[in-house]
Amino acid sequence: MKAIFIDIPGPSDYEKVWSLQNKLHKMRVSGEINDILILTEHEHVYTIGKAGNEKDLRVSEFFLKDLGAKIFKIDRGGKITYHGPGQIVGYPIFNLNELKIDVHTYLRKIEEVIILTLDDFGIKAERKDGLTGVWVGDEKIASIGIKVSHWVTMHGFALNVNTNLKFFDFIFPCGLKDVSMTSMKKILGFDVDIADVKVNLKKKFEAVFDIEFIGQFEEILNEEF
Question: What domain of life (predicted)?
Fold first, then answer.
């Protein structure tokens, strides 16, 4: 199955990419375009999903805004998470009916993409029973929060590559009060090339979802960025 790959240079504005997602989601639902994968890094931002609220903050909103971080309440599942420079955020806009998979299988496939990517960088990652996301030992390295409408997905995952982990100290990540976050940089002890990780993720998406990316969607990108 053919799909479109969009690599948005970062750090990108969260609200702009969210708007782009909504536009592309409507186009995918109507059948105007193929499945799409967006990869980017964001400026500092906290997003609160439908299951979350301000109780998942450990500091005031004013404190976070003083740090230069924005806060958005959005329509994905899950609670609160952080996005920022050094973190790859992926937004698959996939038609699950055409892929012939259900939501549970979709989530496990996203986890598999991340686990296989990390393995190529010498990091042994795994799932945890009853929890969505990817872990290295007892520390979480990737979070997943999605929305599915008309069987087309949006929102997605965040993989900590060179992320400044102190920004997670100000929240209860994914609403978990005892979770500790990690990154590829923390585990490996050096900065990891973001572009290399993006290329690897792209290849793993092709393998795990049995799709073939055919290039950028330049017209949409030129309109939005």
Answer: Bacteria
